[in-house]
Amino acid sequence: MSDLLLEPAYGKKLKCLAGDCPENCCMEWIIDIDDETAAYYRTVQGEFGDELRKWMRVDGRKLGDTSTIAEQESGAEPCGEAPQAAQAASAPDGRDVLDDSGLFTGTSCTTFALNGTNCPFLQEDGLCRLRLTLGYEHTSETCREHPYNTEEYEGFAERSPSVSCPEVVRLVFETPVNGSGTTAAEDTKNYAGTAQSAITAVTSFTDAQLNPALTSSNAVKPSVQTYPDAPTNADDAVLNILARTRNSLLSAEAFDESLPLDAHIIDLIRRVSLLQPIINDEAPEYAFEFSDDIADQLISGFEEYRTADETPLLITLQDFCLFLRENLSILTDRWKHELEEVQTCAFDMEGVSGGAGMPGMAGFPAGKMLAGTGKESEVSSYRWDAEPEKKYPSFGAYLDAHRTVLSRLYAYYVYRYFLKAVNDCETPVWAGFIACGAFVPAFLSYANGTPLMKTAAWYSREIEHDSDNAEKILAYFRANLSTDWEDFT
Ligand code: SF4
């Protein structure tokens, strides 16, 4: 672990809702058990120990199950065994896993099986029986860490909670990016007791070049900000450039919560089109060609939808939801339902030209269309179980009405993912991933009327917490942005 651990201001405010949580994280997910904790569970005596082992699975098999994979697949019911027997069994117990032909297939993974859709230790009151019985320190690392995620970079680490948790969504929605009442310094833990080193520039590019919004007239360093600045003094020049760009993106002097989401995305596209050539010079072996033509097409797509016709953008978003439904693993039926609802709208829209005053919207079922106020919603009005959102006369009107919270959701994704481009030097691909994190929940909420808190949390649960799904979205942007972006033409 790095000496310097950075955390957004709301990270420290998080208090688990436990029994009051509307969507407990002990539901639906299969919980990984780390090796140390799994080893401890094998030693727990008495009835509770037996119960722990009854639910433990190693690569999906009950402890002590010696049936072959073929037998498992044919539906043979494996039998549970006492821990002593499990330890003596040849399968599956160790770290090396062999398939039925004796081939090495990787390391084993210990989990708890679900009881129905829930963790078997989730009580009716929403509390964890395992934690109540054995203590917090004997829950698995996944349970102790969730909903926090820690990313390690050269010289520092960042820890932030995920919006898959309903309470985190609420905190993100209610916390201004431009200040939270705590100072950036207070949001910085320094485990080794060493002060953050002075920030030094590593390239000849100025912050104003990386951030066109930053001018000498408004370049005043704020005393408060929700997202602490990342240090920019690493040996890795690409990391420094990314950190400087993200710092300026989320800085109080540059980040404008009154902008609608599409304006933020246009800004992000402009920034990465400036940034990528700089990064290509620093790391030519990873060069990613993001042409000005692609950037211009993307930007004009967003601009045209505001000034002329929403249809191309809406169809692109609906196609993207179809891509999610067809190509990604889906954890919950409600998420599948959200994506399918949108497809109904997409189907209805085909061949329909926009009606007067509502370009591109004529195909939406009339019963679902209510006149939107277009007024800014109060942030405090966002609730998990809010009434279905009013339908807005256009997606633009929806984005305008939700501009503050969508700005904050977008900032959350910028904070968590922008620096990840250090691993592949593909800033446009990560920009696409960041844009999706805010755009897809907004579009689902607009199209289906589902409260934005839910669509934001569900998107995170299904995408952020599933590395295969996240990788498929990155691959989608890698393929489209490095060649052409036909959906906008
Ligand atoms: S989702 Fe969040 S609030 Fe709900 S039980 Fe999990 S950590 Fe607590």
Features of this protein?
single chain, 489 residues, alpha+beta, 2 domains, four-stranded mixed sheet, four-stranded antiparallel sheet, 18 helices, 10 strands, 43% helix, 7% strand, globular, binds iron/sulfur cluster
What does this 3D model show about the protein?
With 489 residues, this protein is an alpha+beta fold. It folds into 2 domains: 1-25 and 146-489, no CATH class; 26-145, no CATH class. Helices cover 43% and strands 7% of the residues. The chain contains 18 helices and 10 strands. It has helices spanning 35-41, 46-55, 69-73, 83-88, 129-134, 141-145, 166-174, 207-210, 237-249, 261-282, 292-307, 311-327, 333-349, 395-401, 403-417, 427-448, 452-464, 467-481; strands at residues 4-6, 32-33, 56-58, 61-62, 96-98, 104-107, 110-112, 148-153, 156-161, 188-190. The strands form 3 sheets. It has a 4-stranded mixed β-sheet with strand order 8-9-1-10, with no helix packed on it. A 4-stranded antiparallel β-sheet has the order 2-7-3-4. It has a two-stranded antiparallel ribbon with strand order 5-6. Strand 5 (96-98) and strand 6 (104-107) form a beta hairpin. The longest helix is centred in the middle third of the chain and has 22 residues, at 261-282. 38% of the residues are buried. Iron/sulfur cluster is lined by residues 16-18, 21, 24-25, 147, 165-167.
Low-confidence stretches: 73-98, 180-223, 346-378
Report the count of strand segments.
10
Number of domains: 2
The largest sheet, given as strand count, sense and whether it forms a barrel, is: 4 strands, mixed
CA-based shape: globular
